[in-house]
Amino acid sequence: MNSFKTIGIIGGGQLGQMMAIAAIYMGHKVITLDPASDCPASRVSEVIVAPYDDVEALGQLAARCDVLTYEFENVDADGLDAVVSAGQLPQGTDLLRISQNRIFEKDFLANKAGVAVAPYKVVSSSLDLEGLDHSKTYVLKTATGGYDGHGQKVIRSADDMAEASQLANSAECVLEEFVTFDLEISVIVSGNGKDVTVFPVQENIHRNNILSKTIVPARISEQLAEKAKSMAVQIAKKLELSGTLCVEMFATADDIIVNEIAPRPHNSGHYSIEACDFSQFDTHILGVLGQPLPKIKLHAPAVMLNVLGQHVQQAIDYVAQNPSAHLHMYGKLEAKHNRKMGHVTVFAEDADEVEEFGEGVEY
């Protein structure tokens, strides 16, 4: 019996492209669904050009593929339910619905997975913001549709209430107490429906709410690192996870608090392509196919730098001067400001010596 499959990926961005590359190396065929015919995945797979909520196109993809997966959260869960056959979407649509809605996500994390989250409450209108204790800082986030800082408002004082009220009246929201943390970290975990494998803890540095630099292993105590990994595994097991999941967390002086989950490979896990014996994309494909998962080994400490539209030339120059750095460009045709165009991974014992790409940085 032929063990090679046709895998359908919903979403043809850089994550879809890197999933496809991992699948192709294993001998599988890939078909991608994306609204753009020139999406990054078009360089390595056939593309069905259609919107993500086009049920007819989703049905066409499902009919031609053995297994389906998705590269990002904002996929039409109802549309998928209408077209997939039993077992064809191992990640399931429950995970999609949880990660598409911050209210469902907080409820799942706090009450079902039993992990620590920041104190929060559901906000249905500006009335729910009355009587806030302005000695505390809060973050108001829309329940759906927010990414890279969009759909969020930090409330530091009464001066911020007008904008916050406007946001609260425009959409259902979650209000979180701001957590004082030492580091932002994340843990990548992959499952095959039964077993899980976990990657090293990653330390993440953001600029303007966009990931700029990931350091592996994270510079936290061994005790906190083990706690972070065990929390990620706890979440994955509760989900009966298939494929790769990223758990974003805050590390405080003596505890770990879960912020959110992403049901797919994640920007902060890109270093794993070179720095681990299996990448987050390898384990994603193995996981959705229900195959045995390897124990992950980190070859050496590494740093991943995001290459945004304004950093492209800087990244090319950096790699020319540092031949041991690994450059990945995603094949996006237009280099827009703050658009993720690629990444660079470099092995480094001292992460501080690897400077982020940015305006006016000299190499």
From TrEMBL:
| Binding of ATP, residues | 102, 141, 146-152, 176-179, 184, 206, 259-260
- Ranges for the ATP-grasp domain? 107-289
EC identifiers of the protein = 6.3.4.18
Which UniProt keywords are present, listed alphabetically?
A: ATP-binding, Ligase, Manganese, Nucleotide-binding, Purine biosynthesis
What are the required cofactors?
Answer: Mg(2+); Mn(2+)
Class of the enzyme per the UniProt entry, highest EC level: ligase
GO: which molecular function terms? 5-(carboxyamino)imidazole ribonucleotide synthase activity
Q: Which InterPro entries match?
A: ATP-grasp (IPR011761), ATP-grasp_carboxylate-amine (IPR003135), ATP_grasp_subdomain_1 (IPR013815), PreATP-grasp_dom_sf (IPR016185), PurK (IPR005875), PurK_C (IPR040686), PurT/PurK_preATP-grasp (IPR054350), Rudment_hybrid_motif (IPR011054)
Does the record bear DNA damage in its keywords? no
Q: Do you know which NCBIfam families this protein is assigned to?
A: PRK06019.1-1, PRK06019.1-5, purK
Q: How does it assemble?
A: Homodimer.
This protein is called N5-carboxyaminoimidazole ribonucleotide synthase
Native source organism of the sequence: Streptococcus loxodontisalivarius
- The encoding gene is purK
